[in-house]
Amino acid sequence: MKRIFILAAMASVFLTACKKESTPEYNTRVKATLSVEFDNIVGSVDLQLNTGSYTNALGERFNVTKLKYFVSNFKLTNVDGIVYTVQQDSCYFLIDEANAAAHDATLRLPEGEYKTLSFVLGVDSLRNTSDISKRTGALDVSGAAIDMYWSWNSGYIFFRLDGTSAAVTSMGGVLQYHVGGFGGYSGTTVNNLKTITLDLTTRGTPKVKANKATNVHLMVDILKALNGNTNMSFATTPMVHTPTVGVAVSNNYINMISHDHTEN
């Protein structure tokens, strides 16, 4: 009788263990928060507004007084290959180096482990042409985005880098790279929207769960916006104020963002 009792108890423990193991780790019906941090650097050093001194590929020294750019339209693919698109109305962020509170994009998505992250650098054509009532928060052209918008045919400025350089011999050495262009409202313009897709598997996949802090830390090397497919010369091109001139910069900056690590 004692032996039967022991066997029954062992069977109960075994079944309980199996039941626990079969419980899914993630509940995809539950939304959780993922933070995506944009850490701006210049080569191997942290970007310092106003005080930092840097050198481009052509040996031209420069400093940076302002750095801002839009990121939007986030999509993530989980380890099972399922793609989740973050709700668009909650998916526009203006990264501003001067504002410590504006270095992150906070996303709401189903619980899960995610292997790729994709987003647009810029503001898509639909939102550029939507009614002003739909362009709030980071897209508010009378507020947060007041200096990130062209009122003429090309809409939002996607990427803005201001500074000075001794290589610029006019305009007091002022350097302004303002890149936009989504295709145009009433006439055709260049499209400088860039989709960036990052593999998260090498440096840590985010394991997103409710009531748990998870952060994907990205490095944004602005030197790669200036150097690359085209090595930008401040002496030759001190100003970028039209989409056409901005093509060379946008073809560079598609490579400026990389995944550094994940904090689970």
Describe the fold and architecture.
- This protein has 264 residues and is mostly beta strands.
- The chain has one domain (26-263).
- It is 15% helix and 39% strand.
- The protein is built from 4 helices and 16 strands.
- It has helices at residues 2-21, 125-128, 223-226, 243-253, and strands at 31-42, 45-46, 54-55, 61-78, 83-85, 92-96, 104-110, 112-121, 149-150, 155-164, 174-180, 194-199, 207-208, 215-221, 239-240, 257-263.
- Strands 3, 4, 5, 6, 8, 9, 10, 11, 12, 13 and 15 form an 11-stranded mixed β-sheet that branches. Strands 1, 2, 7, 14 and 16 form a 5-stranded mixed β-sheet that branches.
- The longest helix has 20 residues, at 2-21.
- The chain is globular.
- The protein starts with a helix and ends with a strand.
- The mean pLDDT is 92.
Strand content is 35-45%
Secondary-structure element order, as H and E?
HEEEEEEEEHEEEEEEHEHE
Cα(first) to Cα(last) distance is: 50 Å
Shape type: globular
Query: Biggest sheet, open or closed, and with what strands and sense?
Result: 11 strands, mixed
Structural class: mainly beta
State the total count of DSSP E strands.
16
- Unreliable stretches (pLDDT < 50, length at least 5) are none
Query: What is the mean predicted local confidence, pLDDT?
Result: 92
Q: How many domain units?
A: 1
**Helical content band:** 10-25%
